[in-house]
Every structure is written in C-alpha cells, then in structure tokens.
Amino acid sequence: MTSTFPDISLSTERLVLRPLDTDDVPALAAMMSDEQVGAWTGVPQPFTEDTARTWITEYAPAERAAGHGLDLAVAEFLTQRLVGLIRLTRTNWHVRSTELSYIVAPWARGEGYASEAALATAQWLFGDQKLQRIELRTAADNTAAQQVAQKIGCISEGVLRNACIARVRGEDGGWSEVRTDYIVWSLLPEDIEGADGQLADSGGFPGYTDWN
C-alpha cells in the first residue's frame, strides 16, 4: 500500500502545482512573512530566506519521505510566479485521509487561487491517490479560509473549542498568542462532484480575499 506521496506536478487553467525549488526561496520568504500568514498559521516568524531554504531543502522533503504529507508550490501558469502553497499534513495511509491547508501570497489574493489549487489537489487525492477523506481546519475568525472550504464543497463537521492558537501583533511589534476555536471541515469523494461547475457558475474562480 502506498505510504508516501509522489513528487508530482498538477496543472489547472491558470496554475501549476509543483514541488518547491530553491528558486522559490525569496518568494516563499516574502509570502510567509506576511502579517496575516503570521497571525493564522504556525509558521516561524520571522520567516527569513534561510528559513525558506531549510523548509525547501530539508523540512518538506523529510515530511514527504516519512509519509506525513506533501508541500506543493502554487505558481501562475503564464508567469511562473509563486502565488501560494498547498500543504498536506497528518496523513493517515491506513484510513486514507489527510489534512489540507492553503496559503496565498498577499499580492495574489482576490483571484480565487486558493479554491482553484485546493480543488485540483482534492481531485488528484481522490482519483490518483485513492484517498477517502480530506480534512480542513480553519480558525473561527478566519472567514477567508472558510469561504475557500465552502467553495470546494467541504462540509462543516463542528467546532474544536479553544483548540487553535492564533497570533496578534503587540504595540512593540512582537507577536503574542491568543486561543480561539477551530472549525473542522471534511471533503469526501462524492462532495466534489459538480464543484467545477459551481466555480464556473460563479464566473470562474471568484475574487474573495482568500489567503490561507
């Protein structure tokens, strides 16, 4: 039975999802240093280019090799500019499930890239990888991430109370932690039937502010 994700590239109408490369170091560092990314994710802050290089050359390959998950760079098809990241974590190969999250660079928000990339990833996971469940967790106040989950067909399963640690900037410029709830979403193979049509009916990939 498969216990690791392959090194793959996926294409959509506007995007290419591919393994991270050292050429992505400057763009990844800039994206991960964004204020909202720092607030709603657990990525290290500050996220320097050295941190980005370690992530690309050591952390991401080790996580894939161990069977834990997969990181995919999301780049514009025409320009090849890095616009986001899809992450698969907490993969359980016996249950055939994984947790999916998404980050979109501040300069690429409002273009629907998160929903486009997440849907393509889900279709690949259910089709080629034969997974049976994808889980998403969004902080209770992260409405943009919740919009993406809804757009690709996810079903809200409930709330994990006080289970999320978010971060806020203090007056001194430093980060402090605050506790909040997680909303848990699931996506099953039957849930994405017609998801492409729903996105198309919205005029393509809608321009809400999806960042994570």
From TrEMBL:
SUPFAM superfamilies: Acyl-CoA N-acyltransferases (Nat). Residues 15-171 form the N-acetyltransferase domain. It comes from Streptomyces thermodiastaticus. This is RimJ/RimL family protein N-acetyltransferase. The lineage of its organism: Bacteria, Bacillati, Actinomycetota, Actinomycetes, Kitasatosporales.
